Amino acid sequence: MSTFERVREVVAKQLGRDPSEFTEDTNLVEAGYESLDVIETVFAVEEEFDIDIDFNANESAAQELVTVGDIVAAVDKELAKKAVQ
User: Residues in domain Carrier (predicted)?
Assistant: First the structure.
């Protein structure tokens, strides 16, 4: 399963919806997310991939996670860091 597919599963589960409803361009707020949902999704994604995403809900990084693709990019970035270590 690709990073996108795994992230999409987490996002869909968070909203209780079918994963097929989400693309990389899906805007999380337009999909029904509230700020707490984003935080919970980040935690779930970190657990799914065994990574730590550099995320602080009170900082601008939170504003960077607007779409499913943004979460995928954050995961890919952390996986690349992990691979180098």
Answer: 1-79
Q: Which residue has the tokens 């970035």?
A: 77
Instruction: For domain 3-84, give the CATH number.
Output: 1.10.1200.10
Please state the separation of Cα 66 from the chain's center in Å: 9
pLDDT tens digits for range 6-58:
999 999 999 999 999 999 999 999 999 988 888 899 999 999 999 999 876 66
- Delimit the domains of the chain by residue range: 3-84
Using alpha carbons, list the distances in angstroms from residue 43 to 54, 65, 83, 84: 11, 13, 20, 22
| Helix ranges restricted to H, 21-84 | 35-49, 60-64, 68-84
